[in-house]
Design a protein that fits this description.
Length: 634
C-alpha cells in the first residue's frame, strides 16, 4: 500500500544503506534542478515512515536533492509500507534500471538483497537482468579490490579475463598485483592496494596479467637449475602429495623466483664465448647495441656470436646468434663474393617514453589551437611573401588532399575554401585587394593545417614549421595542468622538475605536485611541446632529401657514362683498317682476337664491382641511401 503525501523535501531522511556510493556529477545535478524548477517534479520519490514518524527516502535521492536546490518548499512523495528487504530491492532497482551504477555498487546491492532474504529470481526481476549477468556480478566477490576499482573506472579486464582472474585464489592475485606495482605505489604504501590510473592502463595488458596468474605450479622436473641456484633465486619448493610416483613432484608458485633462477642458471652454464641476452615480452632475445639478431634462414658467419636468453612465457632457455653491425661496410664471404650486411638495427627493450601517447595527443590539440590563434593574429599585417611561402609549405603537408578540413561536411555544404575562392574570384578574375587576399589565405590555412596525430588528417611536421613562421609558440598556454603532467613517465617528469631547478622526489605524483606548486600561475611550456622542437627534425629531413637527390644524380651520370662506353666499344671494319694504316700494328705474336680480348677485359674491369652478381649502380645507391636501400647476399 502506498499513500501520497505533500511534504517539505528538507525533512526527508536519506537512506543510510543507499546502494549508490559514488559522487554524483555536479553538472548533471544542476541540470536536474533546473529541469524541476522549470517543469516541476514529474516522478514523486518513494519514502517509508520510520518508528519516530520521520520519512526515510527509499528511492529518489537525486530528485530530492534537486528539489532542495530548486528551492521547492513542498513536493509529493509516495509513502510505502514494507520492510528492509523490499526497500533495498526498490533502491537498487531504482539505480540499476533508471541510472547507471558501477558494477561494484550493483554487486554490493545484490549482496545486501540476499542478506535481506531476496532470491536470485526476485533480484533478476528487480534489476531487469538475466541470471548470467547476475553470475557475472558475483565474480567480483572473488576478485582483488584494486582490480574491481579498475573495472568501475572502465579500464578493467574483459569478461573472459575476469573469469580467469576470479578462478585464481585472492592471495595469488594480491601477490602478483603487489609485484607488478611495487615501483608505482607511493612510499610507505602497500603496492597490493595500488589502484591503477588511466595512464597506467595504456601500458597494462590484462591478458599478460592472467598469464602471470596461471603460472601457479611450476614443477622442478621441467627445469635444469640446481638447488644452489634455486636457493640463490629465492625459490621455495612445495611437494605435490598427489603426484605420480617415481617423479620429482616438487613445484613452486613464485613465477618471479623461477624466472630469476633460470636467468642465473643460463649465466652459469653458458658455453665459453656465448653472451646472455635480455628478452622482450614476446619471448625474443634482444641484441645489444651495435649488434643484430641473426635469423635462422641466414648463412652462418665465422664472426657470429652465440647467444642465449630465457623466454619469459615458457621460462625455457633458448639459443641464437648475434652479428656485429658496421657502417654499411662490405664483407667477403668464403667464396670471395661481395656482401653488404643488413642495415637492420638491433632490437632494443621497450621503454616508456618521457611523454605518453595521451600526452602527445594533448600537445597536438594545444598546438593546433595556438597555430590558429597565430594565423588569426596575422590577418592584418602578414607579409604577402610569407603567405606565398606558407602555401608552398602547406602543399607538402601530409593532409594535402585535403583531409582534415573542419569546415567540410559530406552533404554538399560550402567549405571555407569555397567561400574564400568566391570572395577573391567573384567573376572569375582575381580581386587584388591585399586585406581580402590576406584574410582569405589565412582563413583557408586555418581550416586544414593542424598538429593532430591522425595518420589521415594530421598535417605533420609542416604544421610545426608553419607555427614557427607565424610565432605560434607565443600563443601556447601553460601546460602545467594535471592531465598533461600525468602523461609523463617517471624519467620524463624527473627531467621536467630538474629543468626547473627542483630536486627529484620518490614518486611521480610528488614531482607533479612540486612542479605545479613551483610554477603557480606562471606560463610553462616544456621544450618538447613547443613548435620550435620540430626544427631539428626538419633540418634532418632536408639533409636526407639532398643526399637522396645527390645519389640519384650520380646514378644517372654513371648510367649515361656506361652507355657511352658501350658505344665506343663497337669497332667497325673500317675503323680497324684505319688503325692499322696509322701504325697501330699489333704486338709481335699477338693475334687480333687476343688484342680485342685485352681491350674488352680492361674496360670491363674498370666498370664492374668486385662481385659480378651485384650491379655497381645498385651498390652505389645502397651506400648512399642506407636508410632506404640495402643489399643482402643470401
Amino acid at each position: 500500500m502506498t499513500e501520497l503525501r505533500r511534504v517539505d523535501p528538507k525533512t526527508l531522511v536519506p537512506n543510510p544503506n543507499n546502494p549508490r556510493k559514488t559522487q554524483p556529477d555536479p553538472r548533471a545535478e544542476h541540470q536536474l534542478a533546473l529541469n524541476i524548477k522549470t517543469v516541476g517534479l514529474i516522478h514523486a520519490p518513494c519514502v517509508r515512515e520510520l518508528e519516530d514518524g520521520r520519512l526515510m527516502i527509499v528511492a529518489g535521492h537525486r530528485r530530492v536533492r534537486a528539489c532542495i536546490a530548486a528551492k521547492l518548499t513542498e513536493i509529493d512523495v509516495h509513502v510505502r509500507s514494507g520492510d528492509e528487504k523490499s526497500d533495498t530491492m526498490a533502491a537498487v532497482a531504482e539505480n540499476v534500471v533508471r541510472a547507471d551504477m558501477t558494477e561494484s555498487e550493483q554487486w554490493r546491492g545484490v549482496l545486501d538483497m540476499r542478506e535481506k532474504g531476496a532470491t536470485d529470481t526476485e533480484i533478476c526481476r528487480a534489476f531487469m537482468v538475466t541470471p548470467a549477468y547476475l553470475r557475472g556480478l558475483m565474480l567480483l566477490s572473488q576478485i582483488h579490490p584494486p582490480i574491481i576499482a579498475a573495472i568501475d573506472s572502465g579500464i578493467g579486464p574483459s569478461y573472459t579475463d575476469r573469469n580467469a582472474i576470479a578462478r585464481t585464489p585472492l592471495e595469488r592475485q594480491r601477490d602478483v598485483w603487489a609485484e607488478i606495482w611495487a615501483e608505482s605505489a607511493d612510499e610507505g604504501a602497500d603496492p597490493a592496494d595500488y589502484e591503477m590510473s588511466r595512464e597506467d592502463a595504456t601500458h597494462f595488458d590484462w591478458s599478460e596479467f592472467v598469464r602471470y596468474l596461471d603460472q601457479v605450479e611450476l614443477y622442478a622436473r621441467n627445469y635444469e637449475f640446481d638447488d644452489e641456484t634455486a636457493k640463490e633465486a629465492g625459490v621455495v619448493w612445495e611437494e605435490d602429495l598427489f603426484g605420480q610416483g617415481g617423479e620429482d613432484n616438487r613445484y613452486c608458485t613464485q613465477y618471479a623466483a623461477m624466472f630469476k633462477a633460470q636467468q642465473i642458471w643460463a649465466e652459469k652454464t653458458k658455453p665459453e664465448g656465448t653472451i646472455y641476452l635480455q628478452s622482450n615480452e614476446y619471448g625474443e632475445g634482444l641484441a645489444p647495441d651495435g649488434y643484430r639478431k641473426v635469423g635462422s634462414w641466414e648463412m652462418e658467419w665465422d664472426e657470429d656470436i652465440p647467444a642465449i636468453w630465457v623466454n619469459p612465457r615458457t621460462l625455457q632457455i633458448q639459443k641464437g646468434r648475434v652479428r656485429e653491425l658496421g657502417e654499411q661496410s662490405t664483407r667477403r664471404t668464403e667464396n670471395g663474393s661481395l656482401s653488404l650486411p643488413s642495415a637492420q638495427k638491433p632490437e632494443k627493450p621497450k621503454e616508456r617514453p618521457d611523454i605518453s601517447g595521451t600526452g602527445l595527443k594533448i600537445i597536438g590539440d594545444v598546438r593546433t589551437q595556438a597555430l590558429r590563434q597565430a594565423l588569426d593574429a596575422a590577418r592584418e599585417n602578414a607579409d604577402p611573401w610569407d603567405l606565398v611561402g606558407a602555401f608552398i609549405l602547406a602543399l607538402s603537408a601530409n593532409n594535402v588532399k585535403i583531409h582534415g578540413d573542419d569546415t567540410y561536411e559530406p552533404y554538399g555544404s560550402v567549405t571555407e575554401r569555397d567561400l574564400a575562392v568566391a570572395r577573391i574570384f567573384p567573376e572569375g578574375v582575381l580581386v587584388r585587394d591585399p586585406d581580402l587576399l590576406r584574410n582569405a589565405a589565412l582563413g583557408v590555412l586555418s581550416t586544414f593545417m593542424n598538429c593532430g596525430l591522425s595518420q589521415h588528417s594530421g598535417s605533420g611536421l609542416p604544421a610545426q614549421i608553419l607555427g614557427v613562421l607565424f610565432g605560434a609558440d607565443a600563443h601556447m598556454p601553460t601546460m602545467a595542468f594535471e592531465d598533461f603532467l600525468k602523461s609523463y613517465s617517471k624519467p620524463g617528469i624527473t627531467k621536467a622538475v630538474q629543468a626547473e631547478g627542483l630536486k627529484e622526489k620518490p614518486t611521480g605524483k610528488a614531482m607533479r605536485e612540486a612542479l605545479m606548486a613551483h610554477l603557480g600561475e606562471k606560463r610553462w611550456v616544456p621544450e618538447p611541446a613547443t613548435f620550435a622542437a620540430g626544427l631539428s627534425e626538419w633540418k634532418s629531413k632536408i639533409e636526407n632529401q639532398a643526399a637522396r637527390l645527390e645519389a640519384r644524380a650520380r646514378f644517372a651520370a654513371q648510367m649515361e657514362e656506361e652507355e657511352g662506353d658501350a658505344d665506343t666499344d663497337v669497332i667497325t671494319d673500317n675503323e680497324e683498317d684505319d688503325n692499322c694504316e696509322e701504325g697501330g700494328d699489333l704486338d709481335e705474336g699477338q693475334t687480333d682476337q687476343e688484342s680485342l680480348s685485352d681491350v674488352d677485359e680492361s674496360a670491363h674491369n674498370a666498370t664492374i664491382p668486385d662481385d659480378p652478381r651485384i650491379p655497381s649502380e645498385l651498390t652505389e645507391l645502397a651506400r648512399a641511401m642506407p636508410e632506404r636501400l640495402e643489399v643482402i647476399m643470401v
